[in-house]
Each structure stands twice: as C-alpha cells, then as structure tokens.
Amino acid sequence: MTAIEGTQHLRDRETVVSLSPPSGEQAPAVAARSSAPTVSVVIPTLNEARNLPHVFSRLPRDIYEVILSDGRSTDNTIDVARALMPEIIVVHEERRGKGAGLQAGFGAATGDIIVMLDADGSTDPSEIPGFVGALLAGADFVKGSRFLQGGSTQDMEWYRRLGNWGFVKLVQLRFGGRFTDLCYGYNAFWRDVLDRLSLEQDDGFEIETSMNVQALRAKLVVREIASNEHRRIHGTSNLRTFPDGWRVLSTIFTVDSRKVPAPGTSPTRLAAPTSGTTRKAAGS
Ligand SMILES: Nc1nc2c(ncn2[C@@H]2O[C@H](COP(=O)(O)OP(=O)(O)O)[C@@H](O)[C@H]2O)c(=O)[nH]1
Ligand SMILES: [Mg+2]
Asked: What pLDDT is stored for residue 268 in this prediction?
C-alpha cells in the first residue's frame, strides 16, 4: 500500500531556470515531447536522514518536483526531508525494497522527465543537467555509467564490480546492445517511457537491470553517459551481494517473458497527486 502526500510544486515556489537552450537557440527536435521539460526527481529512501542535507544541497534549482519514496524508515528521514524542502512530495511505500520505492515514486511523478537518484550521497544531483541534456538531444532513456570514459566509482567492492561486469556481458550476449554498466541507480527517462516497461515484479535492487534490459528490448533510444559514483556518506548499504545478485541474474533470464503493457495502461503510471492530500496507489 502506498500513500502520497504532496504540497505545492517547486516550480510554483521560485523562478524556473529552464533546462532548455536560451531563447534564440534551436532546441533538439524530439517528437511530441517538450523542449522545455519539467523534471521530477524520484529518491527512494530507507533511513537516510543524515545524508539528505548533502544530497538536497546539490540539487539543481530548476527541478519541478522532488518525490521522496520512503520505505518505512525508522529514523527521521521524512521530517528531515520536509524541514529541508517543505514542498517535497512524500510517498509512503509499505512494501520492502528499493524497487518498490521507485515504482511508487514513478507513479506519483508528474514531470515530463523522471530522474532516479539515491539518497546516500553516492549519485551526485549536480549531474542531472547532463542526463536531461541527453534526453533533449533525442534519447528516450539515459543511463549513467561508471565505466565509460570519464566515469568512476568509489562505492563498489571488487566482488560487486566483478558481478556487475559478468551481468553486463550476459546482457550483451542475450539482448545485444553495448551497455558498459548495468546495476547502477542513476538513470533518467521521459515519463512516457513508463508505458513501455513492466516493473511491478521488481521490488528489489534488480529494478535498474530490469529497466535497462526492457528499454533495450523495447528498442528505445538508450544513451549512456559517464557518471561518478561517490562513497555512501553515512550508514551502510542495504544491498546484500548474493541474494540481490541472484535477483539480478533471475531478472536477466526472465524479463523478456514479461508482457509489455498496452499504451496508457502501465500500473506504474498513476494519476497526478493532488496537492496537499494523501492518496493510496492504484490497485493497492
Ligand atoms: N524506499 C526504499 N528505499 C530503499 C530501500 N532499500 C534501499 N533504498 C534506497 O535505495 C538507495 C540505494 O540503496 P543503498 O542501500 O545505498 O544500496 P547500494 O547503493 O546498492 O549500495 C538509497 O537511497 C536507499 O535509501 C527500501 O527497502 N525501500
Ligand atoms: Mg548506495
């Protein structure tokens, strides 16, 4: 069950510095998509109160809305988030798992573009304009890569690095494509892309793999951009290498048997949240 509480959008609060090119310059043509898109940032959280001040301080000013999708944190994550950003939209997701949190957050998002961001300080919000720029330049789905030239990671033990490499190779063998990274949480996409993805089985850390493979399978224009992953600031990772690695592996083998939702029927897309109210997610 998911409940959503929202207030005024950030865009209403202050001057919007558009992510589109300055007037006079030609915006790249993207069929039926805005050249001055609104951007929703979806942040799944589980006990990240101490990391939020750092993360929020690095968010670009021109974000339309920030959605915190909290998985029953027992610290004061939600209070800290609201103190830092009174306009934030909070989604209460009772199901366990980062994937469940992201699904609920996507359902609450109303911007043209959705950016996925971690709350532990490892994904740098100041990279968001690079993701948006790649979407404006024609991509449907942009994935961060720690292994493209210019990318890096300080938050990956050697065995996770090895596992990620093995999964990248497996995906190349099964589905083609030229991904250089797979299990990384920094992605951005046009919100209409949710119609092409079936995510409701992806409650855990396999969700990024699932999205990446499904984007490839749906023949979306997928672009990788270099990204620098930083060390988690406070606390410890919730990822359990072997059980979660197993979920990623099973996803790679089973994801292509999933039905692609018919346009407009994706369960991940909900109606826009009404300001200042609490709602339950559709179907819960
Ligand atoms: N809503 C929700 N978020 C989660 C859950 N587990 C992890 N997250 C968030 O997902 C992001 C990545 O998780 P993290 O533990 O850092 O995993 P790692 O980056 O793979 O080591 C962080 O923002 C976490 O707070 C969960 O069960 N529910
Ligand atoms: Mg992390």
From this structure: 65
CB atoms within 10 A of CB 247: 21
Residue 1 carries which side chain, given as an amino acid letter? M
- In the reported structure, the alpha carbon of residue 173 is separated from the centroid of ligand 2 by a whole-number distance in angstroms of 28
Find all residues with CB under 8 Å of 246, minimum gap 6, and list them. none
Which residue puts its alpha carbon closest to atom 16 of ligand 1?
A: 237
Q: What is this structure's pTM?
A: 0.87
Strands 222-226 and 141-145: parallel
- Rounded to the nearest angstrom, the distance between the alpha carbon of 156 and the centre of ligand 2 is 9
Write out the H or E segment, with its range, that includes residue 12: helix 10-13
Report how far residue 31's alpha carbon sits from residue 247's, in angstroms, rounded to the nearest whole number.
Answer: 36
pLDDT one-digit tens code per residue, 185-222? 999 999 999 999 999 999 999 999 999 999 999 999 99
Domains and CATH numbers, the chain: 35-267 (3.90.550.10)
Listing DSSP states for 172-235 in one string gives HHHH----S--S-S-EEEEGGGGGG---TT--STTHHHHHHHHHHHTT--EEEEE-EEPPPSSS
Ligand 1 site, residue 48, Cβ cutoff 6 A: yes
Q: How far is the CA of 36 from the centre of ligand 1 (A)?
A: 30
Q: Which residues, in sequence order, are CB contacts of 22 under 8 Å at separation 6+?
A: none
